[in-house]
Amino acid sequence: MDKLARATEILKNAKYAVCLTGAGISTESGIPDFRSDRGYYTNFIPEDALSVGVLESNPQRFYKEGYTILKDLEGKEPNPGHVALAKMQEKGVIHEIITQNIDDLHQAAGAKQVLQVHGDASTARCERCNYREDFKAFDERVQSGEIPPKCPKCGGVMRTNVVLFGDAMPQAFDDAVRATEKADTMIVVGSSLKVMPVAYLPRMVEHLIIINKGTTPYDHNADVIFDGEASPILTELEKRLSE
Ligand code: NAD
């Protein structure tokens, strides 16, 4: 039995399947990941530049380094991999899409139940009163030199709604744990599975399908491993699930 046939069989027999995605699903949309050869690690260390520590102690540096990731997301479109996952969700083959990505591309492709466990780049929030502002308006203030931007409502400090290194995990992570507790099957797409605590989730399921360029620490637990570009594999998998 080939790998696609085996993955199709697992998903068709799943009692409850969820998907976990990482930066690798969006590289085909032109957004670099962290750990590939052309990933952000080649420019800076995300654990440092994208940390609460730097945001609070050296905001000028934060907005010069880590913040560039948020700017890179502007104008990016979903790719066929995002579309295939949205279709699999619409058909009920997979339930929640748990994503580490902050780019909103699953929703742009039509996915409905998306748990953004590392927040989203499309909004900013006030640390004091939780006032929300669109990234575009927030960024205009950053570009005009207002660092850090002040809350228009209470004067507190505004910041990106992305979960930074050193931040507490948001409610969406608890929801992701609950969804994974219900699941017997998980597809992982485009994640090195090195960022905790999200990387614990694949341990919780009985059947694991991994679609990722390169190895992950969970390869020995997987039922099927596809080592390659995500979108052609997901497109073919979605086609077979529809047959
Ligand atoms: P990662 O960079 O650690 O791992 C990405 C994995 O995807 C790598 O193993 C890489 O080889 C693989 N990959 C790259 N392109 C691929 C493709 N086309 N098909 C299949 N596999 C591919 O990313 P991660 O595991 O998500 O963890 C790092 C953090 O990166 C996350 O916390 C996330 O918030 C953040 N991040 C998000 C974005 C985004 O929103 N698009 C971009 C960069 C980083």
Task: Describe the protein's architecture and organization.
The chain has 243 residues and is of the alpha/beta class. The protein has a domain at 1-31 and 78-118 and 169-243: 3-Layer(aba) Sandwich (Rossmann fold). It has ten helices and nine strands. It has helices spanning 3-13, 46-49, 52-57, 59-64, 68-72, 80-90, 105-108, 135-143, 171-182, 230-242; strands spanning 17-21, 97-99, 114-116, 119-126, 132-134, 158-162, 185-189, 207-211, 224-226. Strands 3-2-1-7-8-9 form a six-stranded parallel sheet, with helices on both faces. Helix 1 (3-13) packs across helix 10 and helix 6 runs parallel beside helix 10 (230-242). The relative contact order is 0.20. Bound molecules: nicotinamide-adenine-dinucleotide. Nicotinamide-adenine-dinucleotide (NAD) binds at residues 22-24, 26-28, 31, 33-36, 39, 100-103, 118, 190-192, 194-195, 212-214, 229-230. Nicotinamide-adenine-dinucleotide binds at residues 22-24, 26-28, 31, 33-36, 39, 100-103, 118, 190-192, 194-195, 212-214, 229-230.
